[in-house]
């Protein structure tokens, strides 16, 4: 069964190559361009299939990393707020220490 399939595939390839050699130059270049475009389309589809999974993994990893960094920043700010040296207020998601409110020295 396998040998028959292999022989049939070889015969189809040989006939296709013979027909290709017999084509006029303009038609031959048009067929070659079409085959190149078809091969590029298949390559693009394969890249999209494999890239989709990679993109999903990267998006998930980026979201987890952002969550970790935000949590660490909030914990650091809360720790600093408990410390008597640093005092400030939250304005939305911006922390403004009171030390920034001191008047500037004239020059």
Any overview of this molecule?
This protein is mainly alpha-helical and 107 residues long. It has helices at 2-22, 25-82, and strands spanning 88-91, 94-97. A two-stranded antiparallel ribbon has the order 1-2. The protein is elongated. The model has no long low-confidence stretch (mean pLDDT 86).
Give me the secondary-structure topology.
Blueprint lengths: L1 H21 L2 H58 L5 E4 L2 E4 L10
Antiparallel strand pairs: 1-2
Strand order of the largest sheet: 1-2
Largest sheet: 2 strands, antiparallel
What coarse outline follows from CA principal-axis ratios?
Answer: elongated
Strand percentage:
5-15%
Write a short abstract of this structure.
With 107 residues, the protein is mainly alpha-helical.
Summary keywords:
elongated; 107 residues; two-stranded antiparallel sheet; 2 helices; mainly alpha
């Amino acid at each position: 069964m396998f040998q028959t399939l292999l022989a049939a595939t070889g015969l189809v390839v040989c006939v296709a190559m013979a027909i290709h050699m017999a084509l006029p130059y303009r038609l031959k270049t048009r067929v070659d361009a079409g085959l190149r475009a078809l091969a590029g389309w298949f390559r693009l589809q394969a890249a999209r299939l494999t890239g989709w999974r990679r993109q999903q993994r990267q998006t998930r990893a980026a979201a987890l990393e952002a969550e970790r960094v935000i949590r660490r920043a909030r914990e650091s700010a809360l720790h600093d707020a408990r410390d008597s040296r640093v005092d400030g207020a939250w304005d939305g998601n911006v922390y403004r220490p009171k030390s920034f409110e001191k008047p500037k020295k004239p020059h």
